[in-house]
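Annotated sample (chain length 432).
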Amino acid sequence: MVISLDGFGGWALDDPYLPVPTLRRLAAAGAVAKGMRPVDPTVTWANHTSMVTGVPPARHGVIYNGLLIREPGAAPRVEPWRDKGELVHARTLYDAAHERGMTTAQVDWVAIQNAPTITWEFPERPDPKGAIAQEAVKTGILSQGDLESFHTKNILWRDHIWTEAAAHILRQHRPNLLLFHLLNLDSTQHRYGPRTPAAMDAMAHLDSQVGTIVSTLEKTGLLARTTMFVVSDHGFKAVKRQIRPNVAFAKAGLITVEGGKVSGARVYSVPEGGTALVYVTVPDSSGALLKQAGEALNGLEGIASVIEAPEFGKYGLPQPTATGQMGALLLAAKDGYAFTGDVGEQPVVDAPPGSLGSHGYLASDPDLQALFIASGRGIKRGVRLDSVSNLDLTPTIARLLNLQMPDVQGRVLTEILSAPVSAAGAAKTAPR
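Output written by the structure step:
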């Protein structure tokens, strides 16, 4: 079972005054790292996809929290509700498990819509006619009305329902592999910033949700047969100022703004928080438009670096021509700054209330280190690691389930495994 606590920084377990007793028990009973290195860009969908493929975005293709749609002369837009087959261009753990005849499940995982290799699901936006959704109504987890308006409810309540849905799947269906994702902490830190009382409270609440899962495993007799990985996709940074590259592009005549909205764009910047990608939306064989965009950005407050295509490989990112998702330039922000796609008069403004935290910064930033705990079946007790990569998650889980994932870039974390598991043993003992 993989439990992802969105935005949970790897530093958190070192704070003795953070009340997360369930996470501390799991860490003490198994293996824990001081941090888990995310991939670039440090955003939710890219990193969750790397965690289940074992490869970076250069290979799996997910750059945004959705699919970037490009039209000539127009501002690119990101559409989240696109099928997994359109988004993910690499084999996943759940694909491999399904091929072996194992059962798979997901609750609020990402880049996974209409994945044919998922057996049971309760998605971020559950289908009111879905099998697990209807079971949830019948068992009283939520009402039919709340199910039909699920995405409009507050994120704290939705985290609770996702947890109840995951517990229900464990009780009733006992999948071999369950992917489970919670969102409240990410939303809270975007609004109030990291390391704030609100963020710490959200962390404590997440601990209680993990406690519900552990209790369910105990009551169903599955605990001794289950390996749990409690992870996150990225950490967070505080934001004081916002950078608006599109304002600079508009002043340079590269973007047309009418009535406060972009009506045309030859160059456009799509924000990812601590980074942004710059796209040339019309033919530019001479490179003149890209050069003009670079000149417009020159000296702009808050930009730490402008990274060009020949350097993308160092960051595990694809070339602009690979899938059409990657921009021609990657912008990185300084501490205290984040990018937005807004237009207006000023290219840099104070961050407004409700936008005081962000991620998306370069993965080398220590504040972006994520959480990693492994506990349960097949995991050594008392292992303490300095740092692991989130690309290591897939090959390590594949080893535990005896799945073949030969093309990953991560490694098997053999130092946390208690003993090799035979293929016959895994098939016999894995819950179905």
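Annotation: The radius of gyration is 22 Å.
Annotation: The chain has two domains: 2-55+90-235+368-429, 238-358.
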